[in-house]
Design a protein that fits this description.
Structural class: alpha/beta
Number of domains: 1
CATH topology: Rossmann fold
Number of helices: 12
Order of helices and strands: EHEEEHHHEEEHEEHHEHEHEHEEHH
CATH architecture: 3-Layer(aba) Sandwich
Largest sheet: 8 strands, parallel
Number of strands: 14
Oligomer: single chain
CATH class: Alpha Beta
Shape: globular
Strand content: 15-25%
CATH superfamily: P-loop containing nucleotide triphosphate hydrolases
Length: 331
């Protein structure tokens, strides 16, 4: 069964997109599958030039190894494809453990803070052999300028010996990752960049993080329009918006409760709209991830939320969502 591809998508920044991407990936990798008799294999692809998901998962390793060598990132993969130097993504393009002799750099360090606010990196006590990453680099911004395609959106790829649509790039070279992993999560850029289109073509499922306020809720209308346009551009390849996930919310704030009601009402209207109904047949509004000190602490210390005790509210909220996603591979 091919991997379940999931885009974490919102064209508005600051909505918790990276926090969800990393913690969904870690949460799924921490989940045992009875059917497979093992934990899920998960790949996170950081397609955002800001590289926040990469820094979150790799910490000091990203600064020492990826920042100085962009060829080891998604940018390097994309440029090698364009130049005809590769035909598929394989183990050498991915950071993670593929054999017992290797030590994965994923969450291998955590940041400890002293009372004076200074922090140091120390070895982590936890181990993530089945969570891998293709990291991003700031140079992904250059990829937008470097890719050249004709009026129909076609680009010549020497190694593929054919002309393809530019948004098919990752899909054409992703055979190995689609077979090896159970889940592939893509942290998308907060705009309609070329990499966003490439990621959306590659993934069938979409999760939309949203801050429960007026601007974010109103912005979903535009996002739905863009996904509809892209689906038509992709020759109506299946795209399913699975969830709208409130983030950074506080149940004590009246505005939160009001906007959750607005979101529920809006989702009902969008589902009845013939332009969007096929995108939203399985869409739900999830419990989301609250604005909690533990969430901020996990980011600062470079640790996933599943590292916290099972009674921690942020972990409870996360695992409720992970259970829903884990069921998608059975569909």
């Amino acid at each position: 069964m091919p991997a379940c591809g999931i885009c974490i998508l919102n064209f508005k920044g600051g909505v918790g997109k990276t926090t969800l991407s990393v913690n969904f990936a870690a949460g799924l990798a921490n989940t045992y599958s009875k059917k497979l008799d093992r934990n899920f294999r998960v790949l996170l692809i950081d397609a955002d030039p800001q590289s926040n998901a990469s820094v979150f998962m790799l910490g000091e390793y990203w600064k020492k190894e990826i920042f100085l060598k962009p060829e080891k990132s998604l940018y390097g993969i994309m440029t090698r494809i364009l130049k005809g130097n590769m035909t598929k993504i394989d183990e050498s393009d991915i950071l993670g453990q593929f054999s017992s002799e290797e030590r994965t750099p994923v969450f291998s360090k955590e940041k400890k803070f002293y009372e004076d606010g200074k922090g140091i990196y120390v070895d982590s006590d936890t181990y993530w052999p089945n969570l891998h990453i293709i990291p991003a680099h700031y140079s992904l911004n250059n990829f937008e300028k470097e890719i050249r395609y004709d009026e129909e959106g076609r680009v010549k790829i020497p190694s593929i010996s054919s002309t393809i649509y530019y948004y098919e790039l990752l899909d054409r070279v992703g055979e190995f990752i689609k077979k090896y992993y159970d889940f592939i999560i893509v942290d998308c850029p907060p705009n309609i960049y070329t990499m966003t289109e490439i990621a959306l073509y590659f993934c069938q499922n979409i999760i939309i993080p949203v801050i429960p306020d007026w601007l974010s809720t109103n912005g979903i209308n535009w996002l739905l329009m863009q996904v509809r346009i892209l689906k038509e551009k992709f020759q109506h390849k299946d795209k399913i918006i699975r969830a709208i996930v409130p983030t950074l919310w506080n149940s004590k704030e009246h505005v939160f409760n009001r906007h959750i009601r607005i979101l529920n009402k809006s989702l009902g209207l969008w589902k009845r709209n013939p332009n969007y109904s096929d995108l939203l047949t399985k869409a739900e509004i999830w419990v989301g991830l609250q604005r909690l000190a533990s969430v901020s602490k996990s980011i600062e210390s470079l640790r996933p939320i599943v590292d916290y005790q099972a009674t921690e509210p942020a972990r409870i909220q996360l695992e409720m969502m992970i259970k829903k996603i884990a069921n998608w591979v059975e569909e």
